[in-house]
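tool_call: predict_structure(chain=1)
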Amino acid sequence: MQNTRLNNLVDSIVGQLRQWLRNPWRRLSVLALSLLLGFFLGNVLSTVAGQAAQWDVTVAGFTVLLTEVMSRFFYSSNQGGQRSLWASALNWLKIGLTYSLFLEAFKLGS
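tool_result:
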């Protein structure tokens, strides 16, 4: 790429963001937010799919496909024993999504 001002600005911002996320507490907060976002997405998926009652099978298939792709990405991205923050955040999102769907199933079963 050419060395333009926009390219330099983007590189600078990405470098500062990487430096900021090296702190373990900030990394943990990003992972916790990812878990909560996955939980929220699971609630939204089950609510929207259950409302129409026509999209149940389609949403279930899409959710299974999405979680399998996330698992494939997470377990194939191993960089010397340390996984990237984005791969870990995606895995925590998957965990929150799955946990939320299990909770919804228990609520519907009782």
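agent: The longest helix spans residues 24-52. Proceeding to next step.
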